[in-house]
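Budget justification aside, the reviewers requested a transparent look at the raw inputs and outputs of the sequence design task funded under Objective 1. We therefore reproduce one unedited record. The lines immediately below are the structure tokens for a 634-residue chain.
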């Protein structure tokens, strides 16, 4: 080849190579500049989630945008740096979260004119059936102000709503708040007795898994007559009855009583019917006067005040104290001072005595005015205490006081307030003493005496409250019942036949003891819990623990235990109380527990009320069920 041709070819190749290198350098420079420019622009606009990669003239945008608006903004920012036609959009948008379901709740308001329902309920709830239910239970028109939302009903919603419909029948004036698994009742009753009865009925009717909160109040009672009686004698200072119109008046009365020698705690019944707004001042003044005398009693029956001094009180002291008291008492109050005469020891006073034994037997002894009065007294006693329980051995005498018969019948009627005791009638006083299982027996007797005997007939009351006689206070508390059950199953486990839910024959005596405790405990909201060790499959352990808890519940029903407020719940191996790597530990973990279900603790919306209630009561663990598959069952 000629030399000139060779040089020409070499020059062409060299030029081509140089052009190629220059082109590549230019492309790389464009890529780098585009990528850096776009990245800086995105960072400056707080779009740091976007990823940038240059590929020749193309600019690729990747990453996950929080929302569609920010994805579009990233494209716009990149397009302000390079030509929009060069931008390749490979960005994704973060999936939108599902809208949270609303909190479903309803407020049911009932008064004498009708029922109103306000709130938000699931669309799946049969609205017409619910309104018809409230209308049927209340027999009143129902105003439906509800709204609905198309979301699934949360757990416990239907049970709570069904209970509210049932409960409204017993609530003539009330507000019932319904939420998933929870019901709150706010109501007012006519008396403290009605309040206690309503609380008991609602608690008994509530499903075990329902969180029930009761805010029930009773108005102040009307006290007729408005009665107070304060006594100072050899036994010390005490109230037989204490009534007050306000908390301030109560505090004033109690302060005066403590200053006069009262020891221990005391309270007054705060009620309506006070004869004067100066009641507290009048009582305070009278108690101070009685303290000056040193012994005796002061009785208020509405505005009538009777101050009875002790026998043997100095006449001059009595005159001075009663004179000062009469002057110091506020207007409206009228004082009757009484200084008993000392009886002649030679003859002794006339006397009538009636005794009531703990078995209910009544004996009548002493003096009565005539044969007709003896027949009346005998008949009256038989009507009060039972015709086969009265023995009459009273005799007829002359020269008894004119009000003797009235005080005898009053004393017999007062004796009926007691569980056991006696009443003694003398010319100077009527004395009632004994025991009662009613905390308010002393006050009730004092109020009764004041209404029947008037101001000129002194009386004495020595009634002792015995808790063992109180049918309500004598019941063990739910916490005591839970502790007793724990002691039983701790000392004598409930065991099962190997690999089954059948209670072993050796544990039947334990079930008898548990049933005996529960029958004495009354209404309880109780969870029977089954627990296993960790050997075997978790699902099998859970199923076995549930079956064994239900087996215990069935055994209680067979022993006539009322289990309507009980539930059975298996927890499997999830709540060990010991390590599962030893036989002793596995033995401890295989158990049955009895736990109270809390009735007022709040819980997050949508959670299972049964489990949260059970967990709230599971502060201690111990007691007995054996384990599951392959766990060495007893």
């Amino acid at each position: 080849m000629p030399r000139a041709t060779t040089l020409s070819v070499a020059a062409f190749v060299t030029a081509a190579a140089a052009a190629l290198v220059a082109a590549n350098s230019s492309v790389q420079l464009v890529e780098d500049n585009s990528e850096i420019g776009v990245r800086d622009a995105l960072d400056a606009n707080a779009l740091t989630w976007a990823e940038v990669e240059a590929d020749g003239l193309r600019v690729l945008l990747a990453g996950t945008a929080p929302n569609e608006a920010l994805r579009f903004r990233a494209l716009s920012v990149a397009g302000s740096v390079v030509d929009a036609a060069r931008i390749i959009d490979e960005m994704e948008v973060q999936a939108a979260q599902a809208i949270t379901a609303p909190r479903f709740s309803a407020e049911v308001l009932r008064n004498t004119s009708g029922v109103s329902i306000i709130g938000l309920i699931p669309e799946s709830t049969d609205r017409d059936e619910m309104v018809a239910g409230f209308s049927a239970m209340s027999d009143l028109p129902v105003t439906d102000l509800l709204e609905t939302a198309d979301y699934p009903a949360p757990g416990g919603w239907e049970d709570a709503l069904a209970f509210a419909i049932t409960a409204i029948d017993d609530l003539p004036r009330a507000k019932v708040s319904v939420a998933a698994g929870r019901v709150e009742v706010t109501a007012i009753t006519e008396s403290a007795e009605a309040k206690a009865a309503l609380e008991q009925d609602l608690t008994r009717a509530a499903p075990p898994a329902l969180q029930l909160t009761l805010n029930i109040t009773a108005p102040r009672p009307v006290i007729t007559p408005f009665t107070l009686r304060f006594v100072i004698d050899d036994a010390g200072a005490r109230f037989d009855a204490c009534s007050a119109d306000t908390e301030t008046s109560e505090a004033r009365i109690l302060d005066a009583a403590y200053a006069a020698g009262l020891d221990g705690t005391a309270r007054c019944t705060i009620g309506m019917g006070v004869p004067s707004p100066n009641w507290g001042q009048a009582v305070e003044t009278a108690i101070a006067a009685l303290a000056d005398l040193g012994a005796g009693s002061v009785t208020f029956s509405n505005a009538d005040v009777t101050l009875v001094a002790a026998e043997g009180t100095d006449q001059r002291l009595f005159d001075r104290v009663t004179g000062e008291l009469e002057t110091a008492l506020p207007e409206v109050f009228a004082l009757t001072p009484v200084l008993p005469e000392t009886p002649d020891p030679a003859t002794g006073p006339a006397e009538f005595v009636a005794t009531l034994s703990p078995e209910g037997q009544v004996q009548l002894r002493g003096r009565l005015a005539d044969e007709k009065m003896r027949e009346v007294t005998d008949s009256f006693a038989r009507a009060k205490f039972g015709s086969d329980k009265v023995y009459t051995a009273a005799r007829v005498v002359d020269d008894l006081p004119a009000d003797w018969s009235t005080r005898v019948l009053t004393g017999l009627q007062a004796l009926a307030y007691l569980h056991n005791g006696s009443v003694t009638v003398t010319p100077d006083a009527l004395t009632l003493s004994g025991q009662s299982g009613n905390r308010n027996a002393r006050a009730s007797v004092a109020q009764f005496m004041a209404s029947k005997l008037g101001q000129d007939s002194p009386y004495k009351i020595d009634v002792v409250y015995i808790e063992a006689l109180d049918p309500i206070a004598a019941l063990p508390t739910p916490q005591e019942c839970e502790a007793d059950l724990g002691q039983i199953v701790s000392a004598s486990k409930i065991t099962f036949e190997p690999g089954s839910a059948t209670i072993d024959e050796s544990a039947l005596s334990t079930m008898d003891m548990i049933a005996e405790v529960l029958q004495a405990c009354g209404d309880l909201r109780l969870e029977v819990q089954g627990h296993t060790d960790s050997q075997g499959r978790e699902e099998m352990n859970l199923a076995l623990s549930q079956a064994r808890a239900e087996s215990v519940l069935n055994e209680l029903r067979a022993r006539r235990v009322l289990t309507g407020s009980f539930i059975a719940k298996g927890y499997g191996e999830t709540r060990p109380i010991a390590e599962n790597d030893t036989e002793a530990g596995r033995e401890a973990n295989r158990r049955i527990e009895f736990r109270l279900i809390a009735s007022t603790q709040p819980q997050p919306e949508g959670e299972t009320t049964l489990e949260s209630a059970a967990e709230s009561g599971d502060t201690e663990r111990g007691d007995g069920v054996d384990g599951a598959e392959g766990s060495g069952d007893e």
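Residues 3-44 form the longest helix (42 residues). The radius of gyration is 43 Å. Computational costs for records of this kind are itemized in the attached budget.
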